[in-house]
Amino acid sequence: MFFPSGVELRGAVFRGRPRGGQKAVDMAKKLPRCECCGRVVHPDRYNAGHQKYCKGAECVRERKRKRQREWFAARYAGDPAFAAAARMRCAAANRRRRAAAKACGKQDEPIELFAVVTGLLSQLTDTTDPSQLRVSLRRYQDRGRRMALSAHLGAGPP
Ligand SMILES: [Zn+2]
After folding, report:
1. N or C: which end of the chain has fewer CB within 10 A?
2. What pTM was computed for the model?
3. Which residues have CB less than 5 Å away from ligand 1 (the ion)?
4. Could you tell me if 61 and 30 lie in one domain?
5. Rounded to whole angstroms, how far apart are CA atoms 102 and 90?
6. Quick one: 41 exposed, middle or buried, by C-beta within 10 A (0-12, 13-18, 19+)?
7. Is residue 27 part of a domain?
8. Which domain holds residue 136?
9. Are 49 and 64 within one domain?
10. Residue 127 β-bridge partners
11. In the chain, how many domains are there?
């Protein structure tokens, strides 16, 4: 005898779901497993055929990396102008890296302390705007003077 799900029969409701909680449901439905971590994936019911990864942060990141790798490889193979631009970008990055490595090798050159402070402040404040850097440098100079003065007078830091 056939009863559609949710039909009421002598006070009992048949909902057509197996008993035993979520684990039993997972086993009964043969849910797919994440291609990254291997855990069971609960796909969106409207997009079930396309979801191969779970919602874990590392799996989402890996999926994005994979998608970007595939997109780049396809574009690189199919678009000569894109490939040439990518090679030029890579070559420029290699030149910068080699120049930086070479600069690090100059151990005997004296270090300019002001340039170091400016570079450090530029990185800490995430700006390359000279006027903004100058304002920050002045503030730190004032603070440094106050600290030096208070240390001279024996008081605590400002
Ligand atoms: Zn996963």
Report:
1. N
2. 0.45
3. 34, 36-37, 54, 56, 59
4. no
5. 18
6. buried
7. yes
8. 113-153
9. no
10. none
11. 3
